[in-house]
Amino acid sequence: MTDTNKLTAIAVPGFELPSDMSQWLHLLPREGNHHFVILPGFCDVHVHFREPGFSYKETIESGSRAAARGGYTAVCTMPNLKPVPDSPEHLQPQLDAIQKADLIRVYPYGSISVEEKGEQLSDLEGMAPSVIAFSDDGKGVQQDAMMEEAMNRAKALGKMIVAHCEVNDLLKGGYIHDGTYAREHGHKGICSESEWQQIARDIELVKKTGCPYHVCHISTKESVDIIRRAKAEGVDITCETGPHYLVMDDSDLKEEGRFKMNPPLRDRSDREALLQGLADGTIDCLATDHAPHSAEEKAKGLEKSAFGVVGIETAFPVAYTRLVKTGIITLEQLLQVLVVNPRKRFGIPFGEDFSVWDLDEEFTVDPQDFLSQGKATPFEGWKLQGVNYLTVCGGKVVYQK
Questions:
Q1: Which of 255, 257, 203 shows the shortest CA–CA distance to 232?
Q2: How many other CB atoms are there within 10 angstroms of residue 96's CB atom?
Q3: How far apart are CA 137 and CA 267, in angstroms?
Q4: How confident is the model at residue 105 (pLDDT cuts 50, 70, 90)?
Q5: Residue 284 CA to its chain's centroid (Å)
Q6: Theoretical Cys-Cys bridge with 292: which of 58, 142, 254, 378, CB 3.0 to 4.6 Å?
Q7: Strand segments (E) across 171-288
Q8: 354-364 and 35-40 as β-strands: parallel, antiparallel, unpaired?
Q9: Would you call 359 helix, strand, or coil by DSSP?
Q10: CA–CA dist 242, 223 (Å, integer)
């Protein structure tokens, strides 16, 4: 394969390498004493690629290039766009942009409600053939009756409801976790109940409707407990969390916009509960919630900056360095939540997509080096292990170091 380098492939259930790898492997460096590891293409069920409507933050193409660099070959794009994909007509501009970019596999969500306003349901039936699932991500569906109707209609269409859970009445202008840091620094806090209360409501609706249901970016210990209990009762529920919630908490906050995301970094006890939920299988997917903004939008401190951080280029190295190398989970467990579970739950085929990594190579996170248009990351300056040298999707090279 190479003169001085070694190569191994990690076996993952459902994933098969292409029968002829020679056409790709000659692209790897022949010197440098690397030990390359072939991993199946990762799948992120929660990204914001911002097109149409906000291409100054990110485009389908720039987001896809960033994803490919991170080892991702399949992503699901959230619907807080302009126009919001609430009908086939409003979905079409995004479908056109996806077809034009043609790098990785991009699956759009349709919104649950018209313009994500929570006042009337979107044309779920019209969009169903073209979307991966339905979500109002960025906003919780406040009306119980509307969510119940959405679940009934989604179930009839064979689609999943994917929920950003947040009770608006409990937010009270908060923008970081309602904890020690907020109190000591005079910030308005977001209480944990604003998340878990709506999860609890939705679980009762899932029991009633039988609709398959997935919870976005859980961040609280109560959310983990509620979902664990629901699974034990046989409820058709899965969930995700993001790398930042597993390796940081509100004691890591600084007065910078790159630490502001929704839900916020919470208490250490929440982080520990999330780690336990990851280890015991309560948490099914690791999703980045990759949310790019302009430099100006993220330069206004914790209070006034836009919610959202980027993470698709650093997700695997962060998780590998801080979770696998430290023995919290195994590499196989990490691949379960990055590859196997998201693809199975969302019906996304494995294909023969893969990436090739040197897991021993170290680097320092420098956002100016990102392929994403967004540069706001809480991991800036971190020393991590794991460098991607090659990503192949659909038989073509989509990233090469």
A1: 203
A2: 13
A3: 23
A4: very high
A5: 12
A6: 58
A7: 176-177, 189-190, 213-215, 237-241, 285-286
A8: antiparallel
A9: strand
A10: 14
- Residue 249 annotated to the active site: no
| DSSP-assigned letter for residue 382 | -
CB-CB contact of 39 with 81 (8 Å): no
Rounded Cα distance between 146 and 248, Å, is 35
Question: What string of DSSP letters covers 130-173?
Answer: G-S-B--TTS----HHHHHHHHHHHHHTT--EEE----GGGTTT
| Structure-token pair, residue 254 | 């600084």
Catalytic residue selected from 289, 353, 366, 369: 289
Band (376; pLDDT cuts 50, 70, 90): very high
User: Per-residue DSSP letters for 29-94?
Assistant: -SSS--EEEEEEPEEEEEE---TTT-TTT--HHHHHHHHHHTTEEEEEE-S-SSS-S-SHHHHHHH
Amino acid identity of 193? Answer: E
Dihedral sign of CA atoms 89, 93, 96, 98 in order: negative
Residue pLDDT, tens place only, 4-62: 678 899 989 889 888 888 888 889 998 888 999 999 999 999 999 999 999 999 999 99
Please state, in angstroms and rounded to a whole number, the distance separating the CA atoms of residues 181 and 253. Answer: 8
61 token code pair? 């193409």
Amino acid at the residue 46? H
Residue 2: its pLDDT value, please? 53
Identify whether the C-beta of residue 42 lies closer than 8 Å to the C-beta of residue 316: yes
pLDDT in tens, 255-280: 999 999 999 999 999 999 999 999 99
